[in-house]
Design a protein that fits this description.
With 120 residues, this protein is mainly alpha-helical. It has four helices and two strands; from the N terminus they run ααββαα. A hairpin with an 8-residue loop joins β1 and β2 (92-94). The model has no long low-confidence stretch (mean pLDDT 76).
Length: 120
């Protein structure tokens, strides 16, 4: 036993149980760690975060990319660009096609040709 355990008369099991409880209290914002959202279960609480929309008249945003069209089309995951996945012999027409196909493994990998042929 450590010196602090001996002073409090705690066994190893009791010390471990207290440490686990402190960790749970921290996770669920209880006890000494209570903040503005004390005693809220994170699995049962949801927050909505939102950003203000950019003002189109704001001159500082004049060079901001606001769509993936025209000169910025290449930034879109749907832009035509041959993408080859490791292990495949034919490229996919867009990065999005390659991404969707990459999620197929095992027996589902047989569906990759259908992903390759899909329209964008």
């Amino acid at each position: 036993m450590s010196g602090q355990q001996q002073k409090q008369g705690l066994s190893k099991a009791e010390t471990k149980a207290r440490a686990q409880q402190r960790a749970l209290d921290f996770i669920y914002n209880k006890g000494d760690f209570a903040g503005a959202n004390a005693r809220l279960d994170p699995d049962k609480v949801s927050k909505t975060y939102s950003k203000k929309r950019a003002d189109p008249e704001d001159e500082s945003l004049a060079s901001a990319i606001t769509s993936f069209e025209g000169p910025h089309e290449f930034l879109s995951n749907m832009a035509r660009s041959a993408c080859l996945l490791r292990g495949d012999t034919e490229p996919y027409s867009t990065a999005e096609h390659a991404f969707q196909a990459s999620k197929l493994s095992g027996a589902a990998a047989a569906a990759r040709p259908m992903v390759r042929a899909a329209r964008s």
